[in-house]
Automatic annotation (TrEMBL):
Descriptive protein name: Portal protein
Residues in RCK N-terminal domain copies: 290-391
UniProt KW DNA-binding keyword: no
Key words of the record: Membrane, Transmembrane, Transmembrane helix
Transmembrane recorded as keyword: yes
Record field: transmembrane: 190-213, 242-267
GO biological process, one term: potassium ion transport
Pfam family, one: TrkA_N
Organism: Streptomyces antnestii
Length: 461
């Protein structure tokens, strides 16, 4: 671990007086990016979902130094980026895209285009909140992690090994078989229960064959297997005592029912689109894990980063048709379909034994509901939620401590604004109420030092 304290004279500073056009379909993100650019002495023109003629008029008839396309929809962002490049070839472009394949192709074919991922901007803050609240941001960097600690106005950068955070697990009691069984779904529980009951019936039949019918153990095993598969029973049973015949008859009837349940459960496991498994990589962890509620772009990227760092994770998604579900399956991320604010679901996911819970859905109110439910189940649990700079979030935090709030528009807006002005930070985070940026060379800059206005910028708690 190598601590570094950046020197003030090495701060990155954007060039003032730039004319920026922001093409947006998200008002909160566009407003945040425009506000930051305005404070940093830039001129901003916001175009909410412009048509072709409006965009052409803006780019051809007004001075423009750079264009930022801010959209949550990759198709919309790609269309506006190509249109801007067509109308004004060679202009500096900054585009928000989630799909890495599309992003790589755009970067290759349009050299003057910088592709940003809004999820990459917010994930370092979420990682720090989930794993190590003493840090303001955890930026994955190759095989390690760049950790930023900001205390008393001083920023310290530390380089941690990739698995250091996984090794620093809190003390938990050993997970019990009961917790494992509780984590399973209805179909998986039926499969495990029927298999266990069939195994018990098989063992009892073998023991009775040896002790009551005086069969050799190999013959008894053979006959028990025949009875279990409803092929037949032992010929010696015909001359057995009456009580044995009654027990054998009841056993065969029970086995018939259990075999039907077991077969149906197996068929359901193989034919259904299951996002979790009973054992293996996609099984639900029961201790030392992170619960991620909301499997959108942010939730998927956060879950993937956690797995890369060696942290066990389970995601919760209420929409069975969510676009990110196939990606989560390919990454072996266990996903439970259900409502994250359901107390019984949180108990099933062993939230008390979890390392933290992140509510990162796109709806701030839903995230707060999840945080409140999690606080009711585990009062001392580490909770972080994605929220916006709205009055509801601020008022809720003032009433009681829900959890650590990660201001999505504030962080992403500053990230986009800094990138379109040409300084290109690695990530942006909020520490002690201050918006800061981490740069690839390890420098940390308090973005308030870029402000050229005399009034105080708007702050959120």
């Amino acid at each position: 671990m190598t601590p570094q304290t950046p020197r003030a004279e090495e701060h990155h500073i954007p060039s003032p007086g730039q004319h920026i056009v922001i093409i947006e379909d998200d008002e909160a993100l566009g407003r945040s990016a425009a506000a930051h650019i305005g404070r940093w002495y830039g001129t901003v023109h916001r175009l909410p979902r412009p048509d072709d003629d409006t965009l052409r008029q803006q780019l051809e008839q007004h001075p423009v130094d750079a264009v930022a396309v801010v959209s949550r929809d990759d198709i919309v962002a790609l269309r506006y980026a190509l249109l801007a490049e067509h109308l004004k070839p060679g202009i500096r472009l900054v585009v928000t895209l989630f799909d890495r394949t599309v992003a790589d192709e755009v970067s290759r074919t349009v050299p003057n285009c910088t592709v940003l991922s809004m999820t990459d901007a917010i994930v370092p803050s979420l990682l720090a909140g989930c794993l190590a609240p003493s840090y303001a941001a955890l930026q994955p960097d190759g095989g390690g992690v760049v950790a930023v600690r900001r205390e008393g106005g001083e920023a310290t950068v530390e380089h941690l090994p990739g698995r250091a955070l996984a090794a620093d697990l809190p003390a938990h009691h050993r997970a019990s078989p009961r917790a494992w069984l509780r984590s399973l779904g209805t179909s998986a529980k039926a499969l495990v229960a029927s298999l266990t009951a069939l195994s018990v019936a098989f063992t009892v039949d073998i023991v009775l064959g040896v002790t009551v019918l005086h069969e050799h153990w190999s013959d008894s095993t053979w006959n028990a297997a025949r009875a279990l598969t409803t092929i037949g029973s032992s010929s010696a049973a015909e001359h057995g005592p009456a009580w044995y015949k009654v027990v054998s008859a009841v056993s065969m009837l029970v086995v018939l029912v259990l075999a039907a349940i077991f077969t149906a459960s197996v068929v359901d496991r193989f034919t259904g689109h299951r996002m979790t498994s009973i054992l293996g990589a996609r099984s639900i962890p029961r201790r030392g894990h992170v619960v991620v509620v909301g499997l959108g772009q942010v939730g998927l990227r956060l879950s993937a980063r956690l797995k890369d760092l060696g942290i066990k994770v389970v995601a919760v998604e209420r929409n069975p048709q969510a676009a990110c579900l196939p990606l989560a399956r390919s990454l072996n991320i266990p996903v439970v379909l259900g409502r994250g604010g359901d107390r019984f679901l949180l108990e099933r996911l062993s939230v008390r034994q979890a390392r933290g819970l992140a509510a990162v859905g796109s709806d701030s109110l839903e995230n707060m509901a999840v945080a409140v439910a999690a606080r009711a189940v585990a009062s001392d649990q580490r909770i972080i939620l994605r929220a916006g700079s709205d009055e509801v979030t601020t008022d809720s935090q003032a009433l009681f401590r829900i959890g650590a709030v990660c201001d999505f528009p504030r962080i992403v807006g500053a990230f986009v604004a800094a990138s379109v002005l040409g300084v290109e930070p690695s990530s942006v985070f909020v520490a002690e109420g201050r918006t800061c940026a981490l740069f690839p060379d390890g420098q940390v800059v308090d973005l308030a030092t870029w402000d050229t206005r005399t009034e105080e910028p708007v702050r959120t708690n």
